[in-house]
Amino acid sequence: MHSPVPVPDTFSLLKKLISFDTSNPPGNEAECAKWAASWLESCGFETRLVNHSEKRSSVIASIRKGKGKKIVFNGHLDVVPVGSEWDTNPFEAVEKGSRIYARGAADMKGGVAAMIAAAATMADQPFNGEIMLNLVADEELFNVGTMKTLEFTKDADFVIIGEPTCMELHIAHRGLVHFLIRFEGKSCHGGLPELGVNAIENAALGILALKEYAALLKTRKHPLLPNPTFASTVIQGGEKDNIIPGVCTLRADRRLIPGESPETAEREIRAVLDGLKIAHPEFGYTLENYHSMGSGEISSDAELVKLAGNVYRDCFGEDCKIACFPASCEQTFFTAAGADAVIIGPGSIEQAHVVNEFIEKAEIEKAERFYKAFLKAALH
C-alpha cells in the first residue's frame, strides 16, 4: 500500500515542471516525464512511461476505484523554443505580483500542474471510476505523444484538455495543413531569359491564383469557429542575379473547419494550380502535404459539455463561456477515436509562444478547483 498522499502544492509542482527545458525542437521531455511519473506513483497512481526515443517520453498515470466513468486529463510537457532575449530566466518560475513568468507557464505547464494537483487530491478519496493523466511529448510539432498513447486513452468517457483558454469551455477547433509547393521552371543565363522558364514567375502566377482561392474560403462559415483560411507564408527561390531560376518553393498554411479534411484541401489547391496550366503551358508544380491535423468539434448538447458547465456554475456562481479554440489542438485525435473531449485550462492563448510568457496565479487556482470539482461530479 502506498504512503499517504502528499498534499500537492500546485505552484511547487509548476515550478518543478518549468525547471525542465523541454523546448521542442528537440523536446527532451524524458526527464520531466520521469519526474512526473515518479511523483504520481508516490500518490498511488499506476504509471507507465511511453518512450518515443532516447530523450522523449510521455506519461500515462491512472487510478481506478469502481466501474464508473473513465476521465482523462490531457496536457503536453513540451514548450516552444525561447526565442528572443527574456527579462528573466525562462526555465525558472519567477513570481512578480499576481503573475508567474516562464516559458510554458501558460502553454501549458500551468494547466498540467493544476491537473496533477487535482487528480492527486482524489487519490485517497472515494470515487467511482478511473482517473487518468495523459502527459504527452511533442504537441508543439507532430503530436507523437498523444497519437502513441491513444491505445490507453481512446476508451475514455470524457477527456479534458488543459490548453490555455482563460477557463472558457472550448468545444471546437480548426484543423491545419502545411503544404510545400515547388514551382518548376528551367534555368538558363540571365541574359537569355527566352531560353528558360522562370520559376519565380510561375510562383507569382500560383500565389495570385491561391489568393483568389483564399478569398473564396471566407464564404464558408461555422457557428463558432472563424472561417477556413489559406496563407502563403514562406517563399524561397533563385540562386544568383544572372541565373533564371529553375525552382521556387512556397510553404503555405491552410486552416480547416469541421466538414473539411486535409485531403479535400489538397484536392482544391491542385484544382487551382492545374487550372493555370491551360493558359500557361510552361507552368509546372509539385505539391506536398508535409504536416496536417484535422479539426475537432463536440456538440454543445453533449453530456460532457453540460456537466462541465454545471460544475463551473456550482464552483464560481456564473455560467461558463462556451467558445472555440483559436489554434490547432489535440481534441481532434480524441474525437476521431470516439471519445468526447473539450478544452478548458488556465492562462491565455495570447501568452503562448511569446517572450516573457506569464500566467496569473489566480487562474491556476481556479483551474485546480474546477478540475477537482469535475472529477467529483463525474465519478460520484
UniProtKB/TrEMBL annotation:
SUPFAM superfamilies: Bacterial exopeptidase dimerisation domain, Zn-dependent exopeptidases. Its EC number is 3.5.1.16. The keyword Glycoprotein does not apply. It is an enzyme of class 3 (hydrolase). Residues 171-274 form the Peptidase M20 dimerisation domain. Keywords: Amino-acid biosynthesis, Cobalt, Hydrolase, Metal-binding, Zinc. Its cofactor is Zn(2+); Co(2+). InterPro entries: ArgE/DapE, Bact_exopeptidase_dim_dom, Peptidase_M20, Peptidase_M20_dimer, Peptidase_M20A. One of its GO terms (molecular function) is metal ion binding. GO terms for biological process: amino acid biosynthetic process. Gene3D superfamilies: 3.30.70.360, Zn peptidases. CDD domains: M20_ArgE_DapE-like (cd08659). Pfam families: M20_dimer, Peptidase_M20. NCBIfam families: DapE-ArgE. Belongs to the peptidase M20A family. PANTHER family: ACETYLORNITHINE DEACETYLASE (PTHR43808), PEPTIDASE M20 DIMERISATION DOMAIN-CONTAINING PROTEIN (PTHR43808:SF8). This is Acetylornithine deacetylase (Acetylornithinase) (AO) (N-acetylornithinase) (NAO). It comes from Leadbettera azotonutricia (strain ATCC BAA-888 / DSM 13862 / ZAS-9). The lineage of its organism: Bacteria, Pseudomonadati, Spirochaetota, Spirochaetia, Spirochaetales.
